[in-house]
Amino acid sequence: MYTEFLSFPRDFAWGTATASYQIEGAVNEDGRGKSIWDTFSHIKGNTADGETGDIACDHYRRYQEDVRLMRGLGIKNYRCSIAWPRIIPSGNGASSRCGVSGNVNQKGLDFYDRLFDGCLENGITPWVTLFHWDLPQTLQDKGGFANRDCAGYFCDYTDKVTSHFGDRIKNWITINEPWVYSFCGHLYGVHAPGVRDTGAALSVAHNVLLAHGMSLPIIRKNVPGAKAGIANNIAWVESAGSRQEDTEAAKRWDMAFNRWFTDPLFGKGYPEEMVRWYGKNMPGIKDGDFDHIACPMDFLAVNYYTRRLVAHDETDSHIKAKQVYRPHIQRQEFEEWENFPEGLYRALVDIKERYGDIPVYITENGASCHDKISGDGCVHDPARVEYLRRHFAAAWQAIKDGCDLRGYFVWSLYDNLEWGFGFTKRFGFVYIDRENNLKRIVKDSGHFIASVYEKNGFTVD
Ligand code: IFM
Predict the structure, then answer these.
(1) What is the pairing mode between strands 430-433 and 77-81?
(2) I need a surface site. Which of 11, 176, 316, 448 has the fewest CB within 10 A?
(3) Is the entire prediction scored with pTM above 0.70?
(4) Domains of the chain: residue spans and CATH
(5) Ligand 1 pocket, 415 CB below 6 A?
């Protein structure tokens, strides 16, 4: 049988990713303020089984064990997020650009000092996301990101955080998945803060992009040798049928989901056709906004999970489009998430063709599976191993074909709070045994990852 070893570039950054509200717990500890996810998850009916991030994976208390576990698996890069309400419980920086003051919580800084120093001592480079959706509730009370001032508050927070950690943390991701934050949280209402309003979603989208662009010069000022970018969730979109109306719906989906959030980063503004489509729902855009948003980045971070097959849908009030699910297609436990590694390859090539030679990191990719502890005490997750193997191979092919892909972070280290799905979806390559004191059990996929990372590649048949 013919086998080939797919090897990756020598300095390829293999790693894993998590987010503060999904793993930390300790929501009332050491002066942390309330976030919109605390509010949202405590409202009955908003999350599966009424679960919240109150305890999550208890990472706040068990971070040392978690760092040791990562070291044991040979993980060299760890992407995590900082909880804004731990650093500035009231949401505003002391020297606020917006003239509102708020205090920095030293104990919040201390926690991340301990975590980051622990990582560095164990040979793990931290990559920090500034905003992975846990907005301080006090800022939501002022309108949240639908209020343009929030971009200024984000800059204050960025200033505090990057001036404190900039001596040690060089890799910064401003915002995680602006589409999810704006649309799931403000149009579909399934994420915090639970708003359902197209105009609000588009304002949030604009202000989040503005916050991203305005924060880049602050990061560079505070962090010598900084590398910074934004993490966009990018899906490969295809028409579900050959009818022209389906092709057009798929094009709209691509523009609303992918290009709305990526074109402006590269100086292209919003896709014209969608601007016309949104009409009176368009947000207020001021002179200079697109210059801020297009502030050059050091990399584009891409979170890729799936392809979207799209058809025309007259009843959809947003873009008259719907996703189509085909029964024979292999998919994740998330029934709408098709396993489509080729989409990762195509998305990477598309980024290169559309936006040029920007370095790219895959900052999230992974699978949700029905994991169980077997009789032998292990967690066997062949579907996840296969998903990862095929996506790693797609990434390898993209590099071979000239994409400047620099790293790959598997989502996620742990089974964590999957937002509105509570703990029903397991994305970790380390199992969290919720029946047994949150015991961590490395799944087969964790061992697979450890071997790929160690060898910087893997064998395919
Ligand atoms: O868990 C999420 C993460 O917070 C953002 N990206 C997608 C993951 C899986 O749904």
Answers:
(1) unpaired
(2) 11
(3) yes
(4) 4-460 (3.20.20.80)
(5) no
